[in-house]
Amino acid sequence: MTHTTSRQGPELSYRTRPRALLVAVAAALAPTLAAPAVAQAATTKAGKRITVASGETLELTETTTATRLTIAEGGAITVPDGYSLSLTVNGVETGSELALLTDGYGGAATAIAAGTYRGTIVLTVAEATEVAYSTLTFPFRQAIYVDADGVDEAKSVPSDVSGGTVTDTGASDITLASNGEAFNGVYVTGGGSYTLTNPKILFDGNGRCDFIGYGASVVGTGAGTTLVLDGATISNVGVVRTAVIADATANVIVKNSTLHCADGVVPDEYPTAGTGDTRYMITVPWMLGLSGNVRTTNLLGANTKASYINSTISSEKWGALSVDGGSYCTLTAINSTIANTGGQGYGSYAIGNVTEHFLGCTFDVGDYALIHWGASAHYGDSTAEAVAALNESLEIGLTSAELADLEVKSTVIDAGRFMVMWYAAGSVTIDGGTEVNTGETTFVSKAVAGTVTVDGSDGATINPGNGVIFQLMDTDRPSSVSVSGKAWSTETTGTYTEPTGSPTRSSSWVTTSSQSTDSKGTFSDIELTGDFYNSVWGGGNGSIQGQNLSLSFTRSTVAGVISASTAKHAVSTITSAEYRQISEVTNTPSAVVNNGVLVTLGTGSTWTVTGTSYLSALTLASDATVTAPSGKTVTLTVNGTTTTLKAGTTYTGALTLTVS
Fold first, then answer.
1. Tell me: the pLDDT tens digits for 305-350?
2. DSSP states along 138-150
3. CA dist 186 to 74, 109, 171, Å?
4. Which of 246, 267, 358, 657 fits a disulfide with 306 by CB distance 3.0 to 4.6 angstroms?
5. Can you give the pTM of this predicted structure?
6. Eight-class DSSP state of 39
7. Can you tell me the distance from the alpha carbon of 415 to that of 466, in angstroms, rounded to the nearest whole number?
């Protein structure tokens, strides 16, 4: 089956959307006690005109065209059960309005808003596409629905497709536009394979749920499903009006494309502080230190894959690349730019044992390159060997010509605040010529076993804007609070309060030897300038007895303070109003209590101690050196006794290094 359209696409600057009139939604959904009046249609020389007066209901049983449509306040257009209704005017989906979030359906029901519409009007009656997520079922509507048999026109809205060609295996040079709400562009499922070449997708209006893709530009979902975007331009504006969703074991490949999503207006009924209930969550949790209400991509489900090659992926705030609500997924970006344009946000989010690869990428992000909830992430060069290996193992499908055309690049990270923030155990590897520039601390671990390995043998560099390379600290993330009597189960109204007094030494925690829960940094063949701090309180605070920071240096130099510390926020209590204070601390070096610091200076390594440092263990290789800045000397005391620093020796206990 082939569908070709040659008519001109819509203007890309849309007219203003009709004002949301929830009475029209209510009229469409609520039961009636008496038979409603029936709307009338008239045909004139100018074409068919449809008028639905207040109190009237027009039921459509088939797709209908007109040149003018008028729906008065209190009027409604309905379709039989098992069908959906979409309105396009001059090739632009429009008029669709979401019900309140509190309607019991997640605000998922849509109706055509009251107003007068003129132009080439198509009211499409399509077979319903109901997609379940948790306890909710969302009524998807999409321009193009694809399954294993190709395009299913009965579930599609062809009038939203302008220009180009649509076939059962792919579409090229098409434009999809929407200024309604929760309308999808292309939905590929059921093991189908589909390629979109040079599509333009421009959506302006809110979506509803980016944990299932309700309102996204493109969705690839289901085992055996492959969705390829080549040369795509996607520009969305709206709450969770996501560009690309990969879900449920699908394989989604985006190349040579530009994706951008900008914030919309949050519905009035949404809780002020937000919710972590993913059925309803439409803003970034403020406890991440962020704001915003749309992320450009989301990777979901089990063993799902999403790959971005030679593309630009940007969000206004929140996040550009996200993995959320999935398990054992793989996210890959090669020679791509990842950015936030609104001064806040992350490059990628990683949760659920995900693996993330970034080769030859450029990050220009407001806050974090990575928010880490349990993953393995790698930042390196896009060498031919590395790209070819991923191309094969992840079934990206790049041809030999495409592989040959990819330039070898190093990754460059410019992050407004931090490179990585760990909320769960997991690893980060940095190698090749990767350049890391942060406005503040490079690595922040929130009392978890965050592990970073940096190999500088090919030129990798670390440049912290505030002079702190690694901060191990207590979690300052407030918890969600359970609520009842509301559609959502939680609200993010918790607070963080700084502990007062002094920590109590734990009788069970061992600070002088490495533990499985340590945060660890391993650095080789690199010159480092910056400080390393462990300020974890322990002693049962935050349900942990203690936590160590273990650092290892091989053929490396480090100049800075490495120490246990006491960390303080600028404010003692953090609520949603102070969300930007999350992760923001200052350190005072202080003696180890439950926050051991274990340093190993391996072969060929030198530590230049720039200020008083408190450790619990120090191991020196036979050719390792501990020194002070020019003109100064460094002194070691062990349990209060001055001790000579000697290569090839291990020291444990209460270690203090002072510079004079």
1. 999 999 999 999 999 999 998 899 999 999 999 999 999 999 999 9
2. EEE-EEEEEETTE
3. 32, 20, 10
4. 246
5. 0.93
6. P
7. 12
